[in-house]
Amino acid sequence: MIGxxxxxxxxxxxxVRGLGAARSGTRDFWHQRVTSVAGIPLTVxxxxxxxxxxGRSHAAVVQILGSPFVAIIMLLFILNSAYHMWIGxxxxxxxxxHDDKYKFLSLMMNTFFVIAVGLACAFAIxxxxxxx
Amino acid sequence: xSELKAGSTTGPRSRPLSPHLQIYRPMLTMMMSVAxxxxxxxxxxxxxxxxxxxxxxxxxxxxxxYVEWFMGTxxxxxxxxxxxxxxxxxxxxxxxxxxxxxxHGLEPAERELLTVATLVGSxxxxxxxxxxxxxxxxxxx
Lengths: 132, 141
What we know:
CATH topology of chain B: 3 helical TM bundles of succinate and fumarate reductases
CATH architecture of chain B: Up-down Bundle
Helix content of chain B: over 70%
Number of helices of chain A: 5
Number of domains of chain A: 1
CATH class of chain A: Mainly Alpha
Largest interface: A-B, 31 and 31 residues
Distance between the termini of chain B: 79 Å
Helix content of chain A: over 70%
Oligomer: heterodimer
């Protein structure tokens, strides 16, 4: 249970007010705005990078993707998008899945998916950068 | 008083329900709100394309050649085109929502304009990105 301490003098309503279905208050709402603002230039940068790499040889792609500036932009895009899509999918799940069992199961799957795909992308970029 | 007696006294009284989606006439702003969520969900799984591309590039020339081959097929092109559109639609829709978050552009004419601009803008930008992409590659292959 949330905030149930032996000496908690707050009323039940006070303890839960503003926490919402995911028990996290307005934090997710705000972080979704922060990541969406960051996502504007990063998405434009991603599109430019992908277009610049179209039709190039594997060696050229590895060299460009692994160069520090491009790699840092790509990592920022990946990390920012991962957090943004984690919040977004959580919001969709909370809207449509009301049964606690399925709700927390799908919230867990959301976390697993985002971490797995985010880490895969980040690892690939780091490997290209460090050239191992 | 007679109305109060009309309800069941054994179970909880049925509460009034707020109107839900099916009671409203579909409007453009509403459909675009739905589209924002749909494109967001599509991009959620669409990032697997980016992951596949990056991991293949990190794996080696053969894995990368396979991704290139798939993206060159008709299905690959359609998926990539859809991804481009979803990305740009969600980008412009996100900017629209950020504008609305600042309490600007909420008047009837303004919000319709912003909504139409999102739709027209995302379709146009998708075409521009693909034309630039083909030009960068030296024509369609």
